């Protein structure tokens, strides 16, 4: 097990009808900017629940944060924060709204001239403007971590940021919110959380026995509840385990003391930036090729995953490892998610070269668990995913 | 899954040679009371590591906190805190030293006349004097939770306390510390952590699929590393997984959203108070009888545990459930821990009645997952454990 530090101070308020508990969490004298996305919260009743819980607090609203939260839109919200002296942010939404709010939390206290530098120069945020979240879409885990991914349409870039100042003060998780989520987005959430676990697990074995078992626990739970969630989002047992699994998949716990990979995300982000493919679907496109290309390095862990998560009992290490990749592909398909780039765009030719060139231009010379996937190797992985 | 709230702000600093990182964690202008136990830290080098890391900080020392931290001893330390205007406590020890430090953290800011009231009246501590820990004995999980158990020899009582103000600011976990722990205490730590998981898991099934799998993960890991830890405490992989499992067994995570039981601990504490039996060993004495007495209520979960943790594949639910209890007893025996009260004292006659009467006197009318174990049922469980 590697040395690690772990601290996650976010307060989770989980369960049926928990949105009303929001009223206990807002600091006194808060001047709140309530941030949300495309307005679905006004149709599904969540907006009304939030407003009721906020009571007489001072609230300004900012809607319209898009999926893959867009820098240009966020700059408009930043202007409001500054002119209105906002001192508390409340994100009501999924990962995009929460990530956008994290950017605003950092940017509000950033002293540099250009907030994009926080992303471009990878500036760690030690202290941000305090914020809380009401989660409306289980998937990214952003509700209990300190990271965010922001998109800039102008330059077709999608970059990460983070730091200990960006943990939500609180996050409210009511699993009943999933009843109004379209099946496509539920499938995305399941695939996204599942792949988050893989990124932190599918590496060389490192003797972190407990972390491995926790990772396997989350994947087993997602596999168990996925068909129930898709068939009947009102199944509270399935919904609650889905929601908690998504949070636990990326709240820092399972990555502590282990090597992690994250090449699937790094490459997948480019597919979203280039083609607008849903984030989760880009992961399902890249993950199988990544594991096949790096089969020798990862086969021991792939076999452990095959045995423990997919209950594969026959065959040698190579057989089990290979079948585990196939099982993973079949799982994505069962969610209704295609796993080839050509399923999403006819213009896939040249994509591998484009992504490889972008990584070279950014100086990203080595991705993955050993930071050894050079741009030419990334090119091969993307081609395998056509 | 039940509704829950979860917040655990303790910073964990885990790994080889991590004690030296203590220097980064002590607040400026701290006037520190360094608390420890019987003095083993002066023999095994931990004391010197701590003192080196503290550098020129102002430190007063208080040693001699006994196993089952004793109220009368702690009052002496409380006097020092008050007369010396101590503003930070540093526990260097196992669960007893850390629990004692938590009592002091609460008592230092308690405004009532008699600090024992915090325990006797179950007063929740919202704010305590800040403290950190350097863990020297993996077992209780006290390093990452907000609970403590304090003993009062005068009245042969052992009572619990807690509250959100009692999380350590930080805890330093260097798995290398176990190399100097006697085998008896390593066995106790393994049994203690294992039983902590059982208390939060062995109830009626509640549909918390992820929490169940996390609990099973911890137990599987403890079972896997136990023989290695006992055979060779310098086996770092075994030591680190043992240490992290103990912390995760009782840091709040696996108890969220599920019913819990804790009757084994409530009864076990009385055996320590009456006979001075090691805490972990009282759990090994009571747990098997508790699960047999409550077999009908718990057999579904016992069977799940038998299948997933002990890999029992044959038999019906009752068979698997019963065999799972036997496997648990065998596990304690493999640790060198006896599981009958008569193994520890010849004076066991009358113990069941004494404990039952104590619970009646305290008004504890119902223990366990359904709070339905009345004192007469407790009496039967203890008799089964003779």
Topology record:
Two copies of one chain form a homodimer.
Chain A: E1 4-14, E2 31-35, H1 40-43, H2 46-54, E3 58-62, H3 71-83, E4 88-93, H4 95-109, H5 117-120, E5 131-135, E6 147-152, E7 157-162, E8 170-173, H6 183-201, H7 209-231, H8 236-249, H9 263-275, H10 279-293, H11 295-308, H12 317-334, H13 351-362, H14 375-384
Parallel strand pairs in A: 1-8, 2-3, 2-4, 4-5, 5-8
Antiparallel strand pairs in A: 6-7
Helix pairs in contact in A: 3-4, 6-7, 6-8, 6-10, 7-8, 9-10, 10-11, 10-12, 10-14, 11-12, 13-14
Keywords for this entry:
homodimer, Rossmann fold, six-stranded parallel β-sheet, 12% strand, two-stranded antiparallel ribbon, Dehydroquinate synthase-like, alpha domain, alpha/beta, 386 residues, 47% helix, 2 domains
Q: Rough shape of chain A?
A: globular
How would a textbook summarize the main sheet of chain A? 6 strands, parallel
Q: How much is the average pLDDT of chain A?
A: 96
Please tally the helical runs of chain A, counting DSSP H or I stretches of 4 or more residues: 14
Please count the beta strands of chain A (DSSP E, at least 2 residues each): 8
Strand content of chain A: 5-15%
CATH superfamily annotation of the largest domain in chain A: Dehydroquinate synthase-like - alpha domain
* CATH topology (level 3) name of the largest domain in chain A: Dehydroquinate synthase-like, alpha domain
CATH C-level class of the largest domain in chain A is Mainly Alpha
- The portion of residues assigned to helices of chain A is 40-55%
Number of domains of chain A: 2
The run of helices and strands of chain A is: EEHHEHEHHEEEEHHHHHHHHH
What is the strand arrangement across the widest sheet of chain A?
1-8-5-4-2-3
Quickly give the structural class of chain A.
Answer: alpha/beta
Pfam families (chains A, B): ADH_Fe_C, Fe-ADH
GO molecular function (chains A, B): alcohol dehydrogenase (NADP+) activity; butanol dehydrogenase (NAD+) activity; metal ion binding; methylglyoxal reductase (NADPH) (acetol producing) activity
Domain Fe-containing alcohol dehydrogenase-like C-terminal (chains A, B): 189-386
Protein name (chains A, B): Iron-containing alcohol dehydrogenase
